[in-house]
Design brief:
34% helix; two-stranded parallel sheet; 7 helices; globular; 195 residues; alpha/beta
């Protein structure tokens, strides 16, 4: 059983987190999903839903880290405490998945240095100007570089999660999950129609 540790913060984009998590929820025998935040407690999303989170210090298994994006990233890129904790989490995790502007947080934390990554195309200037040490891939829907997976905006996180499932559990499993979700999967990680 792999643990998916979801790092939440106020005003994260809901679909950034729950799109990929819906994919993983179809494989309950393989993945357990848990929610964490810097200080624990209730965290509000972009749609004002609340998730009760635990403190980062309570993470027991560092298998998969999921980092969503959202408008709050514009402030968090200057929050040294948050970035330091994210850096430690990313270093300890076996796999790191980020959606949308979640990649700018990873970049500012310093863990994407000299790595390929992508992000939301409508926030491209903000993301790419925040770190020049990353090889930003504008045409990609999602990018894998080592243990790091980064995806384009919002719904692209679902594509990335299906891509991850395809790698680990096989292409047919990913396609079956997409069909069950009635989702049209953009299977080509190197082509983003919004780029």
């Amino acid at each position: 059983m792999q643990h998916i540790n979801v790092l939440l913060f106020d005003d994260y984009t809901s679909l950034d987190a729950f799109g990929p998590l819906e994919v993983f929820s179809r494989l309950k025998q393989h993945y357990e999903i848990e929610y964490f935040s810097l200080y624990g407690g209730a965290v509000k999303s972009s749609v004002n839903s609340q998730i009760l989170t635990r403190k980062l210090s309570e993470i027991k298994s560092h298998d998969i880290l999921l980092v969503p994006g959202g408008f709050a990233t514009r402030e968090l890129i200057n929050d040294e405490k948050f970035l330091s904790e994210l850096r430690n989490l990313a270093d300890m995790s076996k796999v790191v998945l980020s959606v949308c502007t979640g990649s700018v947080l990873l970049a500012r934390a310093g863990v994407l240095k000299n790595k390929r990554a992508t992000s939301n195309k409508s926030s491209w200037e903000f993301v790419t100007s925040a770190s020049k040490e990353v090889e930003w891939m504008k045409l990609a829907r999602w990018v894998k570089d080592g243990k790091f997976y980064t995806s384009s905006g919002v719904a692209a996180g679902i594509d990335m999660a299906l891509g991850f499932v395809s790698e680990i559990h096989g292409l047919q499993t990913a396609r079956d999950i997409a069909k069950l979700m009635e989702y049209i999967w953009n299977e080509d990680m190197n082509f983003d129609p919004f780029a």
